[in-house]
Amino acid sequence: MSTVRIVLVALILAAVLPGLLRADTGSVSASGFGVLFEAGILLVVLICFVVAMKIFSYLRGGELASGWQVLAISFIVLCLGQMMELASMLELFGLDRAVVLGIRLIGVSLLMIGVARIKKVLS
Q1: In angstroms, what CA-CA distances link 23 with 84, 85, 97, 122?
Q2: Distance between start and end Cα atoms, the chain
Q3: Quick one: which of 79, 58, 84, 80 has its CA closest to 69?
Q4: Which of 25, 35, 48, 109 is deepest in the core (most CB within 10 A)?
Q5: Where are the domains of the chain?
Q6: pLDDT by residue (tens digit) across 68-117?
Q7: CA-derived radius of gyration, the chain
Q8: How many angstroms separate the CA atoms of 12 and 31, rounded?
Q9: DSSP 92
Q10: What angle separates helix 32-59 from helix 3-22, to the nearest 10 degrees?
Q11: CA atoms within 13 A on the CB side of 69
Q12: Are 102 and 80 in contact (CB under 8 A)?
């Protein structure tokens, strides 16, 4: 990613994050910006999954393949958690927040395992 894109993303985040941090976290209302933000996160996670699968297909069973496979699975789990969060925000079904956070914790744990496997092979 070029430095211009990184600076642009940083400026956008700097403009958006203060408003998000001031938001009332006690209510789970589906504001337009909140839903758009959650959908953007879902899109990024899906793109990460596609890229991880593309890299995994290039490796064809090499030593790094298992690490990238775990990364792809972690992105699937994170995508599932993000879809559940989005459905909860839109009140499509009632779901305990602890379930969504638990699924996200599993996804991040798998992400950490995948990175650790890749690091182990590369070192």
Answers
A1: 21, 17, 18, 43
A2: 25
A3: 58
A4: 48
A5: 27-122
A6: 999 999 999 999 999 998 888 887 877 788 888 889 999 999 999 999 99
A7: 17
A8: 19
A9: S
A10: 140
A11: 9
A12: no
Which residue pairs from 28-32 have beta carbons closer than 8 angstroms and sit at least 24 positions apart in sequence? Answer: 28/88, 28/89, 28/97, 29/89, 30/89, 30/90, 30/91
- The Cα–Cα gap between 58 and 39 comes to 29
- Count of other CB atoms within 10 angstroms of residue 38: 19
> CA 53, CA 82: separation in Å to the nearest integer?
19
Structure tokens at 9: 């993303």
pLDDT in tens, 27-67: 545 677 888 888 888 899 999 999 999 998 888 888 888 89
Residues in the chain: 123
Residues in contact with 85: Cβ distance below 8 Å, sequence separation at least 6, in sequence order: 38, 100
